[in-house]
Backbone:
């Protein structure tokens, strides 16, 4: 829940919030399928993904590679 709230209070339009929330869910599924969610607090991991999403979206990251950029930054400890 905190992860979604992080995105919602990022100052984005409702359409952007919907898109960014879907990216959060997609990236989270990838993290879970790689078994990474077993080793740390899941809520904290989701919140970290949301913070990365907000940061990249605020910088105007291109949607074409957005999900991959979020996942890459998360995997690199961003």
Residues:
């Amino acid at each position: 829940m905190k992860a979604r709230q992080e995105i919602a209070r990022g100052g984005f339009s409702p359409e952007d919030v919907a898109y960014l929330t879907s990216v959060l869910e997609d990236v989270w599924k990838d993290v879970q399928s790689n078994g990474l969610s077993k080793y740390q607090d899941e809520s904290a991991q989701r919140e970290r993904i949301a913070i990365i999403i907000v940061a990249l979206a605020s910088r105007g990251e291109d949607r074409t590679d957005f999900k991959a950029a979020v996942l890459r930054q998360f995997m690199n400890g961003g």
Observations:
- The radius of gyration is 12 Å.
- The helical segments are 2-8, 14-33, 42-58, 66-75.
- The mean pLDDT is 88.
- The chain has one domain: 2-75.
